[in-house]
Design brief:
Blueprint lengths: L6 E4 L2 H7 L2 H8 L16 H9 L2 E4 L8 H6 L5 E4 L11 H4 L3 E4 L1 H20 L2 H9 L21 E5 L3 H10 L5 E5 L5 H6 L3 E2 L2 H7 L2 E4 L13 H6 L5 E4 L8 H9 L4 E4 L12 H4 L3 E3 L11 H16 L18
Parallel strand pairs: 1-2, 2-3, 3-4, 5-6, 5-8, 6-7, 8-9, 9-10, 10-11
Length: 337
């Protein structure tokens, strides 16, 4: 009788239940032998060594240990790593690919709630909802009701600049096609023809800043993208522009952004910051034209299940020899988020 494939969970307990509810575990157990009572966050110790020795597949998630040379040596049967979360950049050593192990990520599934969050913030940001709500709450009886003023607000007929045609960036571009807006795209790896197919005009970074009423950032954190929105480029933004960052905090110069927002010339909606979290009492927390959220745009709560569904389906595709929808190629490690 042929040996059934063996899989091992490597995911933090706090994430496990949301990503892999009982019915998804049952579905996974129909494909592989896997013990849901054991989820590793370290591969040290005898129990981990025994599990790795038999593992054909590692099903990983948030809190998984890095897969490096030591793990590979302990897992001679390992054929695939299926990551039920976003990026694998920090968790997978390039040696994994050299060993011929297939790597898959649920980044596509995790991109969906980030794109939805971005669209919500574009609508609310264009309406100046956050600053107007604060003005409303602080209004004094008899004072001019400035929070009612809506001149120049609303997403309709705006110019939206999208920085980065990443997975999330492309989902945002697709959603923007439902709105009556002009869309600009900066991505040095996208041609003008491809940008047009995505519903956008390809432009330089500086041109995007000059022309955009709203800028949404979806680029990876690389040495060359650090502070890509620096003081000079923030100064190019039109008065009243809104900057939205759901990517990585290092893409924006925090000090320059703070100065620009403190002067009231532009606004910002930040789900990521540099540093993250910001220190208590940082000016960005109290500025009326800035909203800082605690890195919550990605899958949370009921959205976590989508990651588990993707991972289970990916295990099925791997075992049946079908192409993987989330396969990560080794060259992608240098530029993925």
């Amino acid at each position: 009788m042929p040996r059934r494939p063996v899989a091992v969970f490597a995911i933090a307990p706090w994430a496990f239940g949301g990503v892999f509810p009982a019915d998804l575990v049952t579905r996974l157990q129909e494909l592989v032998d896997i013990d849901p009572a054991t989820t590793f966050t370290s591969f040290e110790g005898a129990a981990a060594a025994a599990a790795l020795a038999e593992a054909d597949i590692l099903v990983t998630g948030w809190g998984a240990p890095r897969i490096d040379a030591g793990v590979l040596a302990a897992a001679p049967r390992l054929r695939a790593i299926v990551h039920a979360a976003g990026t694998v950049k920090a968790g997978v050593d390039p040696l994994v690919f050299e060993r011929g192990v297939v790597v898959s990520s649920a980044a596509e599934a995790n991109a969906v709630p980030v794109a939805d969050y971005t669209m919500a913030m574009l609508v609310l940001g264009a309406k100046q909802v956050f600053s107007r709500a604060r003005g409303y709450a602080a209004a004094v009886e008899g004072a001019p009701r400035e929070w009612l003023r809506g001149e120049g607000t609303g997403l309709h007929d705006c110019t939206v600049g999208v920085i980065g045609a990443s997975r999330i960036g492309r989902l945002v571009l697709r959603r923007l096609q439902s709105f009556e807006v002009e869309v600009l795209l900066y991505d040095p790896y996208v041609t003008a023809a491809e940008a047009a197919r995505l519903g956008a005009e390809q432009v330089s970074m500086d041109d995007l800043c000059r022309r955009s009423d709203l800028v949404t950032v979806h680029a990876p954190a690389l040495p060359e993208t650090r502070h890509m929105l620096d003081g000079r480029r923030l100064d190019l933004l039109p008065d009243g522009a809104v900057v939205i960052n759901t990517a990585r905090g290092s893409l924006i110069d925090t000090e320059a952004l703070t100065r620009s927002c403190a002067g009231g010339r532009i606004s910002a909606i930040l789900d990521v910051t540099d540093p993250e979290p910001l220190p208590p009492g940082h000016p960005l927390f109290s500025l009326p034209n800035v909203l800082v959220t605690p890195h919550l745009a990605g899958a949370q709560g009921r959205e976590l299940r989508r990651l588990g569904e993707f991972a289970v389906a990916e295990v099925g595709r791997f075992l049946s020899g079908k192409p993987l929808l989330g396969q990560v190629e080794p060259e992608q490690l240098s530029y993925i988020a």
